[in-house]
């Protein structure tokens, strides 16, 4: 806050003398915050530590030391859980404030080492036998439990990515388009199922007030999975693409209602972008049918894509105005 | 000079001051409302998500229009593609002027997309497949970026201008002879330092107040180029690639000691100066570059096995951060752990959870006996994919 500015406001009678004094006092007491720097350092520390332990286990898998390594990992995980359990505020279905800055990161470390530990048990001792699905299921359940018990959004997101991996889908944000094989119809159906489950879970969280602040995480990931699976369905099932498109419109409508209800600009933008892609595909397919061999459909397709993008822009601008007034 | 209404830009700054004061409970809601009434602005600036959407859609329009134009003119184009691109770029910039003039777009996504694509389309024909020397390309891009920065106060273009200017300096200087080759890093370091000092000065000047954010980005860019120009790895590899030094692995390069010193000491210097001057830019740049210094050492010396380094480094980071957080629980020497403002907390938590999901992918259950299990592989990576 610039004192000159507020002196001017005061002289112009825009703010009272008492307010100006408050500004002056606040500015003289102003502190330099290292909040985000320290948080990032903690996060990097946890990242390095759990990554290093993972490699350590992997490197030592057939040596004498592996039981010692296993013990160390179990110890770190247990110590992390013990600390978090001691420090945590009593459980509530509402949002619970974090007891101290270290809590979030130690919980993350405990959860990550727990996942490594179970994977290691399965690899070395085959505790789950041939039930490989179970080896993915157990850590996922523990992660979901921790997310609710300790109220941690990051662990919830980890649990969701583990759930998706257990069902056979990669949903980590930067990998979702690269690592999934969308020409596989099972994957598309699984995606629809997973997306539907996540959105439902989000809606139930909000409705029953079971950690209502988890809603956004569930619905956000769920909607992306639904939209992407729908688009993949349109591209993959060539003859039934229109049915998938109708499904896409249905999801888009739900997304639009969500956006209106929760005043979310974010949902309106993803709705617009996915719908633009789906609609563009349908129009290009229709144009292909009308014309056959010259450049006509390409011209028309390009003109359509330009015109519809302009229409989308106007729509978004109008929507933005509407939301601001509301 | 600046395309946007400068009174409105001033008023935005005043409104932001008022909002901050309101958030810190210094002024009342009524007082903030009075300030907003007294200093109005009429720009069209949407919510930041809408801005991203508008940006993507505008970029799509520019790309498809370009495609359409190329298709129509395909036969006539042959050699005229450069002219066509420049023409398209100028058209985009013309459209930008219209959007700023009438619907008063300001940081709306539409103006950002038109500006960046316009500058790219105007510059690309001079840089791709040309007979122009590299320094002339850099100079041209630098001038275009500089002019666009002055007119539209865009911070990304300010960074582009700094980088192209330094590139022009480097490509123009190093072919001048053996002396020039060996002193090129020092020239770049001096140039970066000069830009940093100027940007700091301009950032505080009343005359350049609408460009304060550009100056911030210029400062960061100059700090990064200053470090890069003195980094052992960068100097050695550019020496090998461009200047034909042909150093063998293990062979030291001329003035190697100096470059090792600047590789390690510059980040520390940034951090110390940042803490002493309470300068966030210096501090954060220093912290990021400390990682670069570690990677540089890692590249040339095998200090310990990777996992041992990761575990020790991780423990040290957690312990250091934890100790400092405990120490700063009560504010000391003007520093605190507490957050500056409480705004946007929920969104930050959501973004953080996505970063976590991205850096710790779940282990893949696979029957293959050689399977690797996770606990976190891969580094960094933002959540940019879906945010």
From TrEMBL, chain A:
Coiled coil: none annotated. It comes from Chitinophaga japonensis (Flexibacter japonensis). It holds the Pfam family DUF2157. The keyword Protein biosynthesis does not apply. InterPro entries: DUF2157. This is Putative membrane protein DUF2157. Keywords: Membrane, Transmembrane, Transmembrane helix. Residues 8-152 form the DUF2157 domain. The chain crosses the membrane at residues 40-58, 64-84, 105-125, 131-150, 155-174, 186-204, 216-235, 241-257, 264-284, 296-317. It comes from the Bacteria. The keyword RNA-binding does not apply.
TrEMBL record, chain B:
Residues 372-387 have a biased composition (Gly residues). It comes from the Bacteria. The chain crosses the membrane at residues 52-74, 80-100, 132-149, 156-173, 179-199, 211-235, 255-274, 281-298, 310-328. Residues 366-387 are annotated as: Disordered. Keywords: Membrane, Transmembrane, Transmembrane helix. This is Membrane protein DUF2157. It comes from Chitinophaga japonensis (Flexibacter japonensis). The lineage of its organism: Bacteria, Pseudomonadati, Bacteroidota, Chitinophagia, Chitinophagales.
